[in-house]
Write a structure and sequence with these properties.
Blueprint (H helix, E strand, L loop, with lengths): L1 E6 L2 H6 L4 E6 L9 H12 L9 E5 L8 E6 L5 H15 L6 E5 L7 H13 L16 E6 L2 H6 L1 H22 L7 H12 L4 E6 L1 H7 L2 H7 L7 E8 L8 E5 L1 E5 L19 H16 L4 E11 L11 E3 L5 E3 L7 H11 L7 E6 L3 H7 L4 E4 L3 H13 L4 E3 L17 E2 L7 H10 L7 E5 L5 E2 L5 E2 L4 H9 L18
Parallel strand pairs: 1-6, 2-4, 2-5, 5-6, 9-11, 9-14, 10-11, 13-17, 14-18, 15-16
Antiparallel strand pairs: 3-4, 7-8, 8-11, 12-13, 15-18, 19-20
Helix pairs in contact: 3-4, 4-6, 6-10, 7-10, 9-11, 10-15, 11-14, 13-15
């Protein structure tokens, strides 16, 4: 869908040609003499509309209004969170009519309200069709985000571009997160990355089994052994600043299907293990957004991707493998495979001399127990990095919560037969997983985002969320230097 930014006060909105007109109403609104303002006033007086969050009233063919459907919806205090709720409710109210042109009127664009509105429209109108021919794709082609004055519209141009880019990034992450594992293999993900690499300022390199062996990524290779699908190691680079500017490195877990390996998962719910590559999908989505925004920063994306299968050649409990760092790992549970592919990617990240490294992974069920499905888990020994990521999540309505990394949590990772074990028992499982990763991320500021509870939804609403693209994008834009970007250059790490 195409998004447009336009100036429309309530008077102009009444004559604006659109299939459905959504008007966000708040208690702060100033009265006017327009037909739509009068409609709002009458709805309030009658008790059909109040300031309750997402309270809405749909009006069919109101007099002296061009739009056939008008939705008045309360956004309560007008915050970005309330705007998101209001727009979601309003789009759900009209989408059965399959509008091709939708207009959303906001009071202002401050504090990420524009981004919240755009993302709400995209999420509420999303329909998965890739492997479902019977599904009818959304007919929504054009979305106008309207502000009441030219001054507000002009001031909102940067916010609008961010909103447009975020929607594109989240959409890509959501789409590939939703695809079944036979339609989203490591090779498929590599093809997506290659397509991104053709865009201006981007470069993509894909390494296969031979290159991985040459690099000494024994931990990553061991996880992939049980599958007939060959592993891929994706290296994406966005260069928007001078070559001398240290990049931020994003590392996304790309297990395209996780059976648990020899430590086989229970059958119920195993189908959802296609979502185990949502960390990788979020990195791809973030690079899609970067290609649109073209900020003056450098970013590297690393995606180790493979399947975790119980073949005769598969990794076994008790096996000892050697990581790229040289550290040996006793594999006590083959279902703790995400950390085994991430640790080699974290070691590889060192060659970029990064300003910071952030890994994103659907890593532990324990994180879901700790934080549910609202916030992603955040781990970092760096207060500065943790605080910046937390603030970015709050701003983007893609929240996270910091958990501890006390050294005592690593005690359970001790092994009699290797430098470290890959699990440490049930207690504090998300923390001990982070402590394992920390061993491989000592050469740079590092953070780990456990998105096991936030990357997808189960039940009737089953599907990928596209998180944490919003958080990552907000954080990366906060690292943009004040000076203008240098002419993009390509910097490629040699295998």
């Amino acid at each position: 869908m195409n998004f447009e930014l336009k100036t429309l006060d309530l008077h102009a909105a009444a004559t604006h040609k659109t299939d459905a007109l959504i008007i966000l109403v708040s208690a702060k609104d100033k009265p006017s003499k327009s037909v739509l303002a009068q409609l709002i006033s009458n709805a309030r007086k009658s008790g059909d509309l109040d300031d309750s969050p997402a309270k809405l009233l749909t009006v069919w063919q109101p007099q002296n209004v061009s739009a056939s459907r008008v939705v008045l919806v309360s956004c309560a205090d007008g915050s970005a969170a309330q705007v998101r709720k209001a727009v979601t409710a309003a789009v759900n109210a009209v989408k059965a009519a399959k509008p091709a042109h939708l207009t959303v009127c906001l009071a202002d664009a401050a504090d990420q309200r524009l981004q919240a509105a755009a993302q709400a429209v995209a999420d509420a109108s999303y329909v998965y069709t890739a492997t479902k021919p019977s599904a009818k794709a959304s007919g929504l082609k054009r979305v106008v985000l309207a502000l009441p004055t030219a001054e507000k519209t002009k001031a909102a141009k940067a916010a609008f571009e961010l909103a447009r880019a975020q929607v594109a990034g989240v959409s890509l992450a959501k789409e590939w997160g939703n695809r079944p594992a036979n339609h989203a293999t490591p090779t498929h993900l590599a093809d997506v990355a290659k397509a991104l690499g053709k865009k201006a300022g981007l470069h993509c390199q894909v390494l296969g089994p031979k290159e991985i062996e040459k690099l000494g990524m024994g931990s990553f290779a061991a996880v992939a052994r049980g599958s007939v699908e060959p592993l891929r190691f994706i290296v994406l680079q966005y260069t928007g600043a001078a070559k001398t500017e240290a990049p931020t490195v994003l590392v996304g877990k790309g297990i395209t299907f996780d059976t648990g390996g020899i430590s086989l998962k229970p059958g119920p719910g195993m189908d959802e293990m296609k979502f185990d590559m949502c960390g990788a999908a979020s990195v791809l989505g973030t690079f899609e957004a970067l290609s649109i925004l073209k900020p003056a920063i450098n970013v590297v994306g690393l995606i180790p991707t493979c399947e975790n299968m119980p073949d005769g050649t598969a990794l076994k409990p008790g096996d000892v493998i050697t990581s790229m760092s040289g550290q040996t790992i006793e594999v006590l549970n083959t279902d703790a495979e995400g950390r085994l592919i991430l640790c080699d990617a974290l070691t590889y990240a060192t060659r970029f001399k990064p300003r910071a490294v952030i890994d994103i992974a659907t890593l532990t069920g324990a994180c879901v127990i700790s934080l549910g499905h609202v916030r992603s888990g955040l781990f970092s020994p760096s207060d500065d990095l943790a605080n910046a990521l937390f603030a970015a999540g709050e701003a983007a309505l893609d929240p996270c919560w910091r958990l501890p990394l006390d050294d005592e949590y690593a005690e359970g990772l001790k092994s009699n037969f290797a430098d470290v074990a890959n699990v440490a028992g049930r207690e504090g499982g998300s923390i001990t997983a982070a402590k394992f990763l920390q061993r491989f991320a000592k050469d740079y500021p590092w953070a780990h985002l456990d998105i096991a509870g936030s990357a997808w939804k189960s039940g009737a609403a089953k599907g990928a969320t596209g998180r944490p693209v919003g958080l990552l994008l907000q954080y990366l834009l906060g690292t943009t230097p004040k000076k203008a970007a240098a002419k993009p250059v390509r910097r490629t790490a040699k295998a």
